Amino acid sequence: MALETQDIRDRSASSTYAPPSGRSFHPEVAKLIDVSRCIGCKACQSACMEWNNVRDVVGTCDGSYTNPADLTDQSWTVMKFYETEIDGQLNWLILKDGCLHCSDPGCLRACPAPGAVVQYQNGIVDFQQDACIGCGYCIAGCPFNVPRLRTQDSKVYKCTLCSDRVAVGLEPACIKACPTQALSFGTKEAMLDQASHRLVDLRERGLARATVYDPPGVKGTHVVFVLPHGDRPKEYGLPEDPRVGPLLALWRSGFARAVGVFTMFGVLVAGVLHYMRHGPLEVPEEQEGPEKQERGS
Amino acid sequence: MADREENVLLPDGQILRHGNGERIVHWAIAIVFLFLFLSGLALFSPLFFWLSLLFGGGQFMRFLHPIAGVVLVLLFYPYAWRLRGDNHWSPVDTNWAQNMLAYMRKEAHFPDTGKYNAGQKLMYWSMIPVIGVLLVTGIALWQPWFAPSFSPGARRASGLVHAAMAFVMFIGIGVHWYAAYWTRGSIRSMVRGNVTRAWARFHHPGWYKRVTGKDA
Prior knowledge:
Shape of chain B: elongated
Strand content of chain A: 15-25%
Oligomer: heterodimer
Distance between the termini of chain A: 52 Å
Largest interface: A-B, 55 and 53 residues
Number of domains of chain B: 1
Distance between the termini of chain B: 20 Å
CATH superfamily of chain B: Transmembrane di-heme cytochromes, Chain C
Strand order of the largest sheet of chain B: 1-2
Strand content of chain B: under 5%
Order of helices and strands of chain A: EEHEEHEEHEEHHEHEEHH
Helix content of chain A: 25-40%
CATH topology of the largest domain in chain A: Alpha-Beta Plaits
CATH architecture of chain B: Up-down Bundle
Radius of gyration of chain B: 20 Å
Largest sheet of chain B: 2 strands, antiparallel
Structural class of chain A: alpha+beta
Order of helices and strands of chain B: HEHHHHHHHEHH
Largest sheet of chain A: 4 strands, mixed
Structural class of chain B: mainly alpha
């Protein structure tokens, strides 16, 4: 359910804007994932299951520590482990995968069901399963391949950034569980500030290419990463330059809708005008034989 | 074809234009198309999402839409195959197409027009690829069974192409509906099956000549 305590900024498939808020102060929030501090303990993954009451099926080991192998409708955050060679050295990269809560969310743009995807004033992008119709357009629209369709109820699920906790002033469950302070939560401004301090540390310690991952192609995200090897986001399973993309932008655009609807009425109007000007095409009187054509269509 | 045309001359002096099977399949296609069009419109534009209420709500409509699409394909292609003999493009059709605007102003008449005129043949030949593309792109979007096999990029492209083809189809069917209403006697021919000799002689002289053996 949409949380009444969090005002809505944007709402899927809605021609009207969300009502203006009576509240004037809406800080944007963010989760900061400092990959350089993460030890891959999966406490965040467990805390997510615990708070959200989701339990995945026991799967099979794919040879890495990643378990389950990918995000599912029951696993809204998954620790991903990558073994990769960087500068001739083996690196074991760990990334807490999940929804990034884009400022320009592809899922929200793609969604045809009014109100099934909402974006709160604080930046959290949330799915409202009661309005979801299970078409999966959000999955096609997500630049990070995050939403998952649950086949049992044909509705889509993903990380809510614990919108229910945030609404009452608590931090998300994953933040609460992290033992190494790799995860922090606060205003986006504070998190970016904290991240930039961390970058200074990391660069002093030899990680010259460490960066903050807050991709501008989706107008920034509300989950921000500190990546020690920031020049190679792909090694962490993150796209280099995620964006909504021209295909989705055109397909779900107001322009396409306007062209479609105006043409539809255009065909109707053209038919009416043609009929008014020329009347029906009938067999001329003189050509009709003894078996006269019946009137009507 | 010739042997089937032996018995299109009805005892009451009229001519059978569309047999029972052909008419039933035609109207089945029309009903399925109407559902696909209205439900597709609801998915395409939020202004029309309320149409989902006609079909048991958004989720049920979304479930039904691709199934109806497959039903349309299963009805349409055998139907098109059956009509293929009367839809070969001929020089008279090129002439008709070039003078289409004059025909719409009732200023042109084409004495060799066969069972279908060039406008009808254009409809026939455009729907064959359009419905095919709608099927393929629709499968790429079909949750939960088929879409996961396609990449998100392929699904976005399919969504765009599916909408564009549906747009072409709507224009085609819109013109088809209007032309049927405008040409008096043609809706009746698709409901009851028969037309008068005068109607056949005036609108489809080539066909009239072929089935009656008389000059138009």
